[in-house]
Amino acid sequence: MGIIAFQGDVSEHVQAMERVLGGEGSVVEVRRGGIVPGCDGIVLPGGESTTISRHLARTGVGDEVRGASESGVPIMATCAGLIVISREIVEETRFHPLGLMDVRVARNAFGSQRESFEADIDVSGFGSPYCAVFIRAPAVVGWSRKVEVLARIEDAAVAVRQNGLLGLAFHPELTADGRFHEMFLDMIREVDIDVGDR
């Protein structure tokens, strides 16, 4: 499993994935090209979406992530990562997203850093509410029929899934509740890919 490690909550995602893996696999931090093609799952963490996108383009890792997704490798994208994998960003001109998930995303939809918050959300498939941490968070404001909405806050979607893509507007790595990381691990287990063939 690879964690894109240019910026953001990289170590927190590594620790969260290692907890749910329980020694079943390894986690590698991705800072250069050539690593993603050997990964059976990829995490795009939060951070600053413009900065992350520039590093993805500069290193060629963005093309590798796109190719991995097209090959069926599961991807979990959180907060800024959700912005990066989206098809469209509201009023965005600074960079082009990877266009992997058929969603339209609004950046900073819930306000500035100062207006960060936690909220109990109802998630499809979870038996109890999930306490989500929102930090200068985006929101999904439009989506196609290909996209399954897993959780909402009012009219906005904050957790979405499209085939092997899991997009979260919040930071699951900042809570002890590992259900989203476990969901992602299950997505990887469901896919039988020989990474050496890509």
TrEMBL record:
<feature type="binding site">
    <location>
        <begin position="47"/>
        <end position="49"/>
    </location>
    <ligand>
        <name>L-glutamine</name>
    </ligand>
</feature>
<comment type="subunit">
    <text>In the presence of PdxS, forms a dodecamer of heterodimers. Only shows activity in the heterodimer.</text>
</comment>
<feature type="active site" description="Charge relay system">
    <location>
        <position position="173"/>
    </location>
</feature>
<dbReference type="GO" id="GO:0004359">
    <property type="term" value="F:glutaminase activity"/>
</dbReference>
<keyword id="KW-0315">Glutamine amidotransferase</keyword>
<comment type="pathway">
    <text>Cofactor biosynthesis; pyridoxal 5'-phosphate biosynthesis.</text>
</comment>
<comment type="similarity">
    <text>Belongs to the glutaminase PdxT/SNO family.</text>
</comment>
<feature type="active site" description="Charge relay system">
    <location>
        <position position="171"/>
    </location>
</feature>
<feature type="active site" description="Nucleophile">
    <location>
        <position position="79"/>
    </location>
</feature>
<keyword id="KW-0456">Lyase</keyword>
<feature type="binding site">
    <location>
        <begin position="135"/>
        <end position="136"/>
    </location>
    <ligand>
        <name>L-glutamine</name>
    </ligand>
</feature>
<keyword id="KW-0378">Hydrolase</keyword>
<dbReference type="InterPro" id="IPR029062">
    <property type="entry name" value="Class_I_gatase-like"/>
</dbReference>
<keyword id="KW-0663">Pyridoxal phosphate</keyword>
<feature type="binding site">
    <location>
        <position position="107"/>
    </location>
    <ligand>
        <name>L-glutamine</name>
    </ligand>
</feature>
<dbReference type="GO" id="GO:0036381">
    <property type="term" value="F:pyridoxal 5'-phosphate synthase (glutamine hydrolysing) activity"/>
</dbReference>
<dbReference type="InterPro" id="IPR002161">
    <property type="entry name" value="PdxT/SNO"/>
</dbReference>
<comment type="function">
    <text>Catalyzes the hydrolysis of glutamine to glutamate and ammonia as part of the biosynthesis of pyridoxal 5'-phosphate. The resulting ammonia molecule is channeled to the active site of PdxS.</text>
</comment>
<dbReference type="Pfam" id="PF01174">
    <property type="entry name" value="SNO"/>
</dbReference>
<dbReference type="InterPro" id="IPR021196">
    <property type="entry name" value="PdxT/SNO_CS"/>
</dbReference>
<protein>
    <recommendedName>
        <fullName>Pyridoxal 5'-phosphate synthase subunit PdxT</fullName>
        <ecNumber>4.3.3.6</ecNumber>
        <ecNumber>3.5.1.2</ecNumber>
    </recommendedName>
</protein>
